Amino acid sequence: MSQEGSDDIIASNAGSNGRPKAYLLMKPKRKLSVVILARERAGEGAPGVGSLARELLELLEKGE
């Protein structure tokens, strides 16, 4: 698990055993989480699951 800097603590964890990928991103103080499960690898120029999770978390925060 890693923590990224911001006003809130952000916890993330990523995993893969080949093709399937899993990514968890949380802001516990705000009670927000994003979980992404993917079967395919991102194509060249496509955002990775971590980038997608951060964008979704930002959208959730705006909707509060």
What topology does this entry show?
Blueprint: E1 2-4, E2 10-16, E3 21-27, E4 32-38, H1 49-62
Antiparallel strand pairs: 1-2, 2-3, 3-4
Number of domains: 1
Structural class estimated from helices and strands:
alpha+beta
List low-confidence stretches.
none
Q: Give the ordered list of helices and strands.
A: EEEEH
Textual characterization of the structure:
The protein has one helix and four strands. It is α+β, with helices and mostly antiparallel strands and 64 residues long. The protein has one domain. Strands 1-2-3-4 form a four-stranded antiparallel sheet, with helices on one face. Strand 3 and strand 4 form a beta hairpin. The relative contact order is 0.20.
Précis, in short:
The protein is built from one helix and four strands. It is an alpha+beta fold and 64 residues long. The protein has a four-stranded antiparallel beta sheet, with helices on one face.
